[in-house]
Amino acid sequence: MGTGRASTQTTGGQGAEHPVEVQHVDSSIAPTVGSAPIIQPTPASVATQPVPVSTQESASTLVQPSPTPEPTPVQPTPEPFPLTPEIVTPPGDVEAPEFRGIVQWINSDPLTMEELRGKVVLIDFWTYSCINCQRTLPYIRDWHDKYGEIGLVVVGVHAPEFQFERKEENVRQAVADQDVTWAVAMDNGFQTWRSYQNRWWPHKFLIDEQGTIRFHHIGEGAYRETELHIRNLLAEAGVDVSGIQVGGVTGG
User: Fold this and answer.
1) What are the backbone angles phi and psi of residue 94, rounded to the nearest 5°?
2) CA 158, CA 205: separation in Å to the nearest integer?
3) Superfamily for 102-236?
4) Nearest CA to 113 among 126, 122, 104?
5) How does pLDDT run across 162-219, given as a tens digit for each residue?
6) d(Cα 94, Cα 126) in Å, to the nearest integer?
7) Interatomic CA distance for residues 200 and 127, integer angstroms
8) What is the pTM of this model?
9) What does the alpha-carbon distance between residue 3 and residue 28 come to, in Å, rounded to a whole number?
């Protein structure tokens, strides 16, 4: 793990770039063990006195064979749900940062990445007056409706482009007008934005059940690809999505 953006697939799209300077976050590197473990020598066998054997019986009658232990039955490992065959979700090695500097939560109690372990998390950096963000909302709504009850958590991190977008009453009104029913975190100070080294609206991050960033996409588009990655991460978490149709939004 190193400094910089998560080493996941990035597909370009239409998006707005934010001029705030990105503060890079150093990722910790696990220490490497440089020496082999010390192996304790096996103690030498202790000499014992021979067992006297009567002339009327042989040694074979004194030494009873050990009973053959019964084999322990092996429980079969349950088969995981199949992943989507047409796309491979790349492995990740960057842990998703915690939410920082959130001034208000809408549609949800305050959340932490730690308590979301075990869930698949979609984080969407957006701002309500951004037309590019607005065009992605029908797809996010579709994913939330289809997968929200079986393990997907959507969090819209609202980072304001303009001063009027910092006002809670304006954001609440936009959330209602745009039918945003998932959790919204108001990141007025761009602290969570910087933690993810973000520069764009919209920018989506997919995080697996272990809290690792596995995929991200900048801008509009790649809706089918993103949904297939969502399905793969849910399948990794043991969720059966085989009965849920991919797509469903016109133009997706």
Assistant:
1) -115, 120
2) 14
3) Glutaredoxin (3.40.30.10)
4) 122
5) 999 999 999 999 999 999 999 999 999 999 999 999 999 999 999 999 999 999 999 9
6) 22
7) 10
8) 0.71
9) 9
